[in-house]
Design brief:
Blueprint lengths: L7 H7 L13 H6 L5 H11 L8 H33 L3 H7 L6 H11 L8 H7 L5 E2 L8 E2 L6 H17 L1 H12 L4 H22 L4 E4 L8 E4 L17
């Protein structure tokens, strides 16, 4: 019936009768009263009811399955409540409020980053912040060999939050998405492309926190048909190497 057992409509359906075999005898009117089950899923459930067959063990496992379904719904409610609380706490953090202004950065990721960064004064330059967040590598070149290695002093919690935030960020900003696709076309794996994009975002974050400015989108001037492009509020230009992408 569903590829995801955690779907809310499916869990509610499992709890709509005292035992699992009784689910096959529910009428359409009853199905439509189940929370999150609309006409689409009601028709799907009716199609399952006709050929439904239960094994002999259903008497033993029915109660356990329904208890697990109830726990999943209860846990989902607690997660939503925690997310609401995190969002409220984030509003009291200056760093979190600035990070929230970046497209794609949600309250959970920004709260995690704000808590791990604590203060931008800990970092003497943006490269140090990028290393701390796991968005940069260390040079490991020697002689004719050119290469890099992963740094050991990385905040794994902040890195995980940053990876999630950057992955969502690229879906909100076309320039970031194009840069991600370019890295993928160069043979980079998904995580490598995300870290490459995150390296550039770390420069912006460092400037934002240093100058206490929020990220904002401003239109290009000099055109009757205004095109909106993603730019940070930072006035200083980000240095780009010859091989980097003109993301603006």
């Amino acid at each position: 019936m569903t590829s995801e057992a955690s779907n809310q409509w499916f869990l509610n359906f499992l709890l709509s009768a005292q035992t699992l075999p009784q689910l096959a005898r529910l009428r359409k009117a009853t199905l439509l009263k189940i929370p999150a089950v609309g006409r689409k899923y009601a028709s799907l459930l009716e199609g399952w009811q006709k050929p439904a067959h239960f094994s002999e063990e259903v008497e033993w496992v029915s109660e356990m399955i329904q208890e697990d379904a109830w726990r999943c719904l209860d846990l989902e409610d607690k997660i939503k409540a925690l997310g609401t609380k995190i969002k409220q706490v984030a509003q009291d953090s200056k760093i979190a409020k600035m990070l929230l202004s970046i497209p794609g950065f949600g309250p959970v990721s920004t709260s995690e980053l704000a808590g791990e960064i604590r203060t931008i004064e800990r970092f003497s330059k943006e490269g140090s912040l990028a290393l701390y967040l796991g968005m940069s590598t260390l040079d490991n070149s020697s002689g004719k060999y050119q290469g890099s290695k992963a740094p050991k002093h990385v905040n794994t919690r902040a890195k995980a939050a940053m990876m999630i935030a950057i992955d969502r960020h690229r879906k909100y900003v076309p320039e970031s998405q194009r840069y991600y696709e370019k890295k993928r076309s160069e043979g980079k794996k998904h995580n490598q492309a995300i870290r490459a994009l995150g390296r550039h975002v770390c420069r912006i974050i460092y400037k934002m926190l240093k100058e206490k400015r929020e990220y904002h989108i401003r239109p290009l001037t000099g055109n009757t048909k205004t095109k909106v492009t993603s730019r940070s509020c930072v006035k200083t230009k980000i240095r780009r190497s010859k091989n980097s992408v003109n993301a603006k």
